[in-house]
Structure formats: structure tokens, C-alpha cells
Design a protein that fits this description.
Layout (H helix, E strand, L loop, with lengths): L3 E8 L7 H14 L5 E10 L2 H14 L3 E6 L7 H9 L3 E5 L14 H14 L4 E5 L2 H21 L3 E5 L13 H8 L2 E5 L1 H7 L5 H12 L3 E2 L4 H20 L4 E4 L4 H6 L4 H9 L4 E2 L4 H14 L4 E9 L4 E6 L15 E4 L10 E5 L5 E10 L6 E11 L8 E7 L3 H10 L5 E6 L3 H11 L2 E4 L1
Parallel strand pairs: 1-2, 1-3, 3-4, 4-5, 6-7, 6-9, 8-13, 9-10, 16-19
Antiparallel strand pairs: 11-12, 11-18, 12-17, 13-14, 15-16, 15-18, 16-17
Helix pairs in contact: 2-3, 5-12, 5-14, 7-9, 8-9, 9-11
């Protein structure tokens, strides 16, 4: 990803300046310079008034900064940050520090109060901002997370998702609005026919086929699949890999049935998992917003995501079972288990045709998300569910993971149904609910967090 340019604005009240404040400025700047994928554009001084800020604003404008880090070392006048934010039209990260130990004398910092006052102004002006509180050791990791979200939003502006064959029959949940998606997220859809994908298998290079077989078998054992099915899967995977380069794609959404199994002779679940493992997220059943959510997840976590359904829940234990039929990337396999390539458990009644890769997923914190449209299609929605994946056995064929919710399972499922959310979800590894809240704020998405 392209480096984020972060403007560092160190703010103080003129009559409060001491040698200690400049030392804190330098210490904070040094801490900020440890941020990953970030170039710090320093204001170069303790900023006291709007005249100073005006010159600095021109510098930030020339540098084409992506975000303003407004660090209130002490209280500061209320016109500086609102004026700069209005001029640059970039999100502001307010950074306030805890008040120094109070010893019965005058107030020393009043840092939080400064953020409180300035946040009100940006709120009234409908400008984007977020808030971080703490000293450098605790604040910089939080600043990193916010900057990662900004990088994700910027990255999406250049993303292309291949739509292989459109959506599957009857799945209205996989419909999408192409122009509206492009306007909101910057994401471009590229239609690719199933015919081209299949024909490409006949001309795939030997190098592509060798690489595809390595990816297909990586860490896996074979169950009841035949060599013919593995060869067909290898050729199809090579085709997807070559077409990814041809069309400059970042992700795929695939009409995975019925044509592949009916006419080509295999299911493609494991191939989608292989693509996802190559950092080319691939969503099942033609779900374009699912592929978009996978890109968001992987941008924010640096880990592959899991495209899945919620198939059952326990109101008493506040758990839910997430599952899909064999398209999870092998990197998500539960420790101690072996990914097994089997015939598909559903196609033609089950156990007739490969390829599905079966294993339970690893435990740990997860965040489930869904990008969606409002009923009137005027706004986009983002829904998130926070939980913890718990040790799950191979309860059924495919890829299961039981999740312990942090809220009532009944409340969650009622919200999903009452608000008409689609039945496809993307499971991100780790707790990124706060990151997704900021993402929704930046893009003005209607947010539901569970």
C-alpha cells in the first residue's frame, strides 16, 4: 500500500509554554516516527496561534497529507484545527494526554478539554475526526490503527474485483449496485465470463500449472478426491491466477454453481480458498459486497478472512455456528488438524464431485462484518458482530467455527432478521470493531454494531 502522509500538529497555549513542552513534543514526534507505512510531516514547532497555523497549513497542503494528528500538549485556541480541517478536508485524529499529577497549583495541561472543544466544532462542521487518549506509549498504537483504516479507504479507491459469471440463481443477497459501489468505495467491478475461465485452462502455461498445484496442495492431504479432479482443479486455479494478472484484479467473486459442477465436473470451493490464501480474496456465490468486505477485513488485519453463513445459534449459551462448505483458506485451520481435500458434501447430493477443503477453523477473537445496502438503496450499511471463536470439532463437513458472542445471541439474530441483512458474512481475525466504526465514519456508512 502507498504510504500515508500524516501531518503532525503539536498544539499549546502560548502563555503556558515551558522547556518541558518542547521536550514532550520531540518525544512524541519520535514515537510517531515508529508508525508503519507512515511518513510524518512535522509542523516543526509548538503551534500557538492561527497565524502560525496558516503557514503550516500551506506546508501540509503542498505535501498532500492524508490525515492530521492534532496533539494537544496543553490547551489550545479553538480556531486552529477547525480552520485547518476545513481547508485540507482531511480527517483529524485528536490526541489528548492525561492531566499531570495535581499538586494544588494551577492546571498544567487541560489537554482533554481542548479536544472536547475542538471536536464540537468539527462535529458542527460535519468534518471527519476521531479521538485518542493517552501518553505516547499507549496512544501511538491506537493512532496506527486509525491510520490503517485511512490506508484501507485509500486502497479501495484503486481496487478491481472480478465478477466471474455474476451471481448464482435465486441469491438476491448477492445483487449489487455497480455504479453506487464505485462512487462510495471507489471499487471497480470487472465482468469475466465462465467461458473465458474454462477456455483459459486449455492454454495455461506450465509455470502457472506448477504453481497452481503447489498452492492447491499446500499443507493439505487428499481424502476421497480423484487425480482427475485434482488436475481439473489445478487447471482452473491456474486460469484464475492468470486472469487475475490479465485484468489487474485484487479480488474475485465467483458464480461457483451450478455450471462448474454440471458442465466442468468439479466444485470450486477449495480454489476460492486458495485464491484467498494468495491475498486475492474470493467470495462465493457471486457476492460482490462479500468480496469487498473480505478486502476490508484483510486490509485491517493482515490476515485472510472467512466467507461464511451463520447456520445455527444457541440462545442460552450466546453462541453461533459459522460455516461454509469448503472454501476457507488453509491458513485458518485449527491447530492440530489437517486440511483435507474431499468431494463436496452438497453437490449432486454430496460426495460425488470435488473439490472442497475441510477443517474446523482456529479459535480466537473474531469480528464478523457485512457490507449492505439500505432498503431504499440510498445509503450503504455496515454491520459488525464481535465475538470469540472457541475450539470447534469437525461438527459437519466443510469449515465450522463456533463463536461466543459478546452480546445476546437472540438480540443479534433478531437484529439480523428484522433489519434484512444478507445471509453471507465475512469473518475477520481479531477484534476490529473500533476500526470498522472509524471506517464507517469516514465513508458515512449506516453502522450497526452487535
Amino acid at each position: 500500500m502507498k504510504k500515508i502522509k500524516a501531518a503532525y500538529l503539536s498544539l499549546v497555549k502560548g502563555s503556558w509554554i515551558t522547556d518541558l513542552l518542547e521536550k514532550r513534543r520531540k518525544t512524541s514526534l519520535k514515537a510517531l516516527e515508529t508508525l508503519d507505512n507512515v511518513e510524518i510531516i512535522d509542523c516543526g514547532q509548538l503551534v500557538q496561534n492561527e497565524a502560525e497555523a496558516e503557514k503550516i497549513c500551506r506546508k501540509f497542503e503542498d505535501e498532500k497529507v492524508d490525515v492530521i494528528i492534532a496533539h494537544y500538549i496543553t490547551f489550545s485556541l479553538g480556531g486552529i484545527v477547525p480552520g485547518m480541517a476545513a481547508k485540507l478536508r482531511k480527517p483529524v485524529l485528536f490526541w489528548s494526554e492525561p492531566e499531570p499529577a495535581m499538586k494544588g497549583k494551577r492546571i498544567e495541561a487541560n489537554s482533554f478539554c481542548a479536544t472536547n472543544m475542538n471536536a464540537h466544532a468539527l462535529w458542527k462542521m460535519n468534518l471527519k475526526y476521531d479521538f485518542i487518549y493517552g501518553n505516547a506509549a499507549s496512544a501511538v498504537p491506537e493512532i496506527q490503527r486509525r491510520i490503517n483504516v485511512i490506508a484501507c479507504v485509500n486502497h479501495l479507491r484503486n481496487v478491481r474485483i472480478g465478477s466471474a459469471g455474476g451471481r448464482v440463481p435465486g441469491f438476491y443477497t448477492s445483487n449489487f449496485s455497480e455504479l453506487e459501489m464505485r462512487e462510495k468505495f471507489g471499487v471497480e467491478a470487472e465482468g469475466v465470463t465462465l467461458l473465458e475461465i474454462v477456455k483459459r485452462t486449455e492454454t495455461a502455461s506450465k509455470k502457472s500449472l506448477v504453481k497452481a498445484r503447489e498452492v492447491l496442495m499446500n499443507g493439505c492431504v487428499c481424502g476421497n478426491v480423484s487425480e482427475e479432479e485434482l488436475n481439473k482443479g489445478t487447471a482452473l486455479l491456474a486460469s484464475f491466477m492468470e486472469l487475475t494478472e490479465k485484468y489487474h484484479l485484487d479480488a474475485w467473486t465467483v458464480r461457483c454453481w451450478p455450471e462448474f459442477s454440471d458442465l466442468y465436473g468439479i466444485g470450486v470451493c477449495h480454489l476460492l480458498g486458495c485464491l484467498t490464501g494468495l491475498n486475492i480474496p474470493a467470495a462465493c456465490e457471486g457476492d460482490m459486497y462479500g468480496a469487498l468486505a473480505m478486502l476490508i477485513s484483510e486490509s485491517l488485519t493482515g490476515k485472510p478472512s472467512f466467507f461464511c453463513d451463520l447456520i445455527s445459534f444457541d440462545p442460552d449459551g450466546d453462541t453461533g455456528l459459522f460455516w461454509h462448505c469448503g472454501a476457507a483458506p488453509v491458513a485458518l485451520c485449527r491447530k492440530g488438524c489437517k486440511p483435507t481435500i474431499n468431494k463436496h458434501s452438497i453437490i449432486d447430493g454430496g460426495d460425488k464431485k470435488g473439490l472442497a477443503c475441510e477443517f474446523p477453523l482456529e479459535a480466537g477473537p473474531v469480528t464478523v462484518l457485512r457490507i449492505s445496502e439500505s432498503r431504499d438503496r440510498k445509503v450503504f450499511r455496515l454491520m459488525t458482530i464481535s465475538g470469540d471463536g472457541i475450539e470447534t470439532e469437525q461438527l459437519l463437513k466443510g469449515n465450522p467455527l463456533k463463536v461466543k458472542f459478546r452480546r445476546s445471541a437472540s438480540e443479534i439474530t433478531e437484529t439480523l432478521i428484522e433489519n434484512g441483512f444478507e445471509h453471507h458474512y465475512v469473518m475477520a481475525r481479531g477484534d476490529i470493531a473500533k476500526d470498522l466504526k472509524f471506517f464507517a465514519k469516514l465513508l458515512e456508512l449506516e453502522l450497526t454494531q452487535l
